[in-house]
Design a protein that fits this description.
With 253 residues, the protein is α/β, with parallel strands linked by helices. It contains ten helices and eight strands. The structure holds SN-glycerol-1-phosphate.
């Protein structure tokens, strides 16, 4: 695990994964699933003792109203850096180390390309939180996901790596600092190795990959294909011990 200190930014950490070939691991916590103290402690005890590098918090749809309270509690309980992965403006908070400022470049919904960002910008400007501009790309990984439904966007077809590659290329040219390929939470299968490879070859910014990564072999495949940071959510919810297997795997070549 790379030690995080406040002098170095989270983005610098992710960039270091790329530059040094370190396999980054983030655990995604769905705010609805950490709505009480016990749930938070259970997550933190696993993540804190593993080699997970980052915690992502957020979701396309949140139904509980405990988001801000849970985030505060999470922050006070754990030392792993927390990165917001917001599904909407309501998920902006300073109880995190950084926020992925996501532009949904695989879609053509202006609200998620620039609209919500205009509203978020003055709020973020006043707060001390690191902003990581991210080209967010939804990929069709076998079934409709909450992310594609809620975002009103058509995901990139699974077997069209060339579309993903040129979309990422455009995102980098627009100045986005990293690319996130996401099959959406609970995806039937992960983003293909071919697509990860094609995107890796088309951009030089760090590459985050998530959605449907459930096993050590899925994780290895994504890292080997060029992901700098993988994101695991559903598999952790189903079996939190997986974080130890993944953390072990990331150090084995
Ligand atoms: C979803 O990339 C994340 O946005 C994680 O997906 O829940 O399928 O691991 P999973």
């Amino acid at each position: 695990m790379l030690t995080f200190d406040n002098v170095r930014s989270i983005y610098h950490t992710i960039k270091t994964f790329k530059e040094k070939g370190i396999r980054g691991l983030a655990v995604l916590l769905d705010p609805d699933k950490i709505a009480d103290e016990e749930a938070i402690r259970n997550c933190v005890s696993r993540i804190g003792h593993s080699e997970a590098d980052l915690i992502f918090v957020g979701g396309s749809l949140i139904v509980e109203d405990s988001f801000h309270q849970s985030l505060k509690m999470l922050r006070s309980e754990c030392t792993t850096p927390i990165v917001l992965f917001p599904g909407s403006l309501t998920q902006i908070s300073t109880d995190a180390d950084a926020i992925l400022f996501l532009s949904l470049i695989s879609g053509r919904n202006p609200e998620l390309l620039i609209g919500q960002h205009v509203q978020a910008a003055p709020m973020l400007k006043k707060r001390s939180i690191e902003i990581i501009s991210t080209g967010y790309m939804l990929i069709d990984c076998g079934r409709p996901t909450t992310a594609s439904y809620i975002s009103h966007t058509l995901p990139i077809p699974w077997n069209k790596p060339e579309i993903a590659a040129v979309t990422a290329m455009a995102g980098e040219m627009l100045g986005l600092s990293c690319i996130y390929l996401d099959g959406g939470s609970g995806a039937e299968r992960p983003v293909s190795n071919e697509m990860i490879r094609a995107v890796r070859e088309s951009v030089s910014v760090p590459l985050i990959v998530g959605g449907g990564i459930r096993t050590e072999s899925d994780a290895n495949a994504a890292w080997d294909a060029g992901a700098d940071l993988i994101v695991v959510g559903t598999a952790f919810e189903e079996d939190p011990e997986i974080v130890f297997d993944l953390a072990r795997t990331k150090n084995i070549r």
